[in-house]
Amino acid sequence: MTLFPGEKPEYSTEQPPAASDSTERRLEVSLSEKEKYVTAGCLYCDGSNRFHGKAAASWELLDGMDEVQRTSLFSQLLKTAIYRAVLRSGRERPVWGALTGVRPGKLMTPMLQKGFTGAQAVRQFERTYDVSHERALLCLETARQTLRCEAELGEKDICLYIGIPFCPTRCAYCSFVSQSVEKSMGMIPPFLDALYREIDAVSQQVDRLGLRVVSVYMGGGTPTTLSAVQMEELFRHLRGGFELDALREITVEAGRPDTITEEKVLTMSQNGVTRVSVNPQSMTDSVLEAIGRRHSAEDIRRALRMVREGGNFSVNMDLIAGLPTDSRESFCCSLDEVMALEPENITVHTLSIKRGARLHFGEKTLPGPAEVADMLDYANARLSAAGFSPYYLYRQKNMSGGFENIGWSRPGHENIYNICIMEELRSILAMGAGGSTKLIRPDGGRNARMVAPKYPTEYIEAIDRLCTEKEKITAFYQQ
Ligand code: SF4
User: Which of 197, 201, 258, 456 could join 187 in a cystine, given CB atoms 3.0 to 4.6 angstroms apart?
Assistant: First the structure.
């Protein structure tokens, strides 16, 4: 889909027409096992033009692999064969080459652990996956941050996630299915009651297993949609449930500036919050309007002043490249303006249009991949020159141009939670709507996942089951 953006594949079982008669685009793939090699082949027909691609692995490489690893390797070979055939047709080379998957760092970090130098790891990325030199270098920097973070984590360290599924209004590109407060104000108290039950259930497991909470991340939704009193109560429940002596950070997403008040900032400060995320996405008013945010760039500046004056927080600000009606110029201005506000973290996302998102832009134009590439190039160069380093990165499906999201940080302000979740360093125990608990096996074995419903109503209805399910945490760790 990176090579054929916007197209809808059809998987035909019929005999294809002779190449000379065809006007359609078609891929034929094969996987053959011979004595020495497993070979994937691809024939790409574009009308009467034909292009071939091949990728092979020796049987020796497959020795000792289990079924899952073999299937994954075969899949990689097929992808590489398709990639090579399609690129021969003259299609533009994607910046991440033939690399698919959400976490490129999961391939880079093991190379460094095996003793590869940075240059060797970058070369391997370029050769094996045809990743561009710039992207391979970005990935190398984040892999180094991962290793630094890992070195400071203990075996029993874990992170907590709290999902608050409410926002003042819903952004056009939202895929979190959070409820707008206008419609669901009445849902907040019963939702919090259910959340407190889940906090109790999880904290019992943590206590029993002697796990150490090092990071808490409150996301959603927008947690600051809660009132100051509700936030205070939530912090009280967290402190009452969990032993927080080893805690190194608490992040609260205050993404929407229209939810930030002096009282809430004070509540966060008094409850040990270390990092607040104020997310403009764009500093251009017309773009903010186009994506359904009911606030202006001035509201962001006002909210940020309030956060700075109210506590000693690390501040993160998110921007998105590729928003409707945005242009290279206005994106670059947004970045410059955000940098002038001097946050410690800046996260640069690429717009990902997911199914389920209410993003029907109608007449509104979306910047094309080449323009998004220019936006990201500008951001990468500007942030590096200003002393920020990339500390985590990930990719999503349906991303404009197949690019990535990058978390940039001033030295010493890297967020442990973001690294842990992206690089799967430690278990994340999630509570609240849309929370995804991920239990990580330190030996690289299969991890376990438990996902809570996204909507408050479904979450409340499922709370008995969610609490009972938490027994699996103990079972997992005892294994
Ligand atoms: S702030 Fe985030 S979670 Fe809330 S509606 Fe917008 S995109 Fe969705």
Answer: 456
Whether residue 283 is predicted with pLDDT greater than 90 in this model: the reply is yes
CATH architecture of 152-473: Alpha-Beta Barrel (3.20)
In the predicted model, what is the mean pLDDT of the chain? 91
Q: Is the pLDDT of residue 191 over 70?
A: yes
Position 361 scores a pLDDT of: 58
Residue of 167, 351, 455 with the most ligand 1 atoms within 8 Å of its CB, for mutation: 167
Q: Give 180 Cα–ligand 1 centroid separation in angstroms.
A: 9
Residues lining ligand 1, Cβ inside 6 A: 167, 170-171, 174, 176, 178, 220-222, 255-256
Please name the residue whose Cα sits nearest to atom 5 of ligand 1.
170
pLDDT grade for 410, boundaries at 50, 70 and 90: very high
**Phi/psi at 337 (5° precision):** -65, -40
Could you say which DSSP state residue 218 is in? E
The first and second tokens of residue 262, run together, are 């002096």
From residue 175, give the alpha-carbon distance in Å to each of 79, 188, 271, 291, 326.
Answer: 28, 20, 30, 13, 20
Q: Of all protein residues, whose CA lies closest to atom 7 belonging to ligand 1?
A: 174
- Which part of the chain has CATH 3.20.20.70? 152-473
CA of 171 to the centre of ligand 1 (A): 5
Asked if pLDDT for residue 364 goes beyond 70, the answer is no
Q: Which atom of ligand 1 is nearest to the CA of 279?
A: 1
**73-87 per-position pLDDT tens digit:** 899 899 999 999 999
Helix residue spans in 114-244 (DSSP H): 118-129, 133-151, 181-184, 188-209, 228-241
Instruction: Name the range with the highest mean pLDDT among 121-130, 359-368, 384-393.
Output: 384-393
Which of the listed residues 164, 166, 170, 218 should we mutate to test ligand 1's pocket, taking the one with most ligand atoms within 8 A of CB? 170
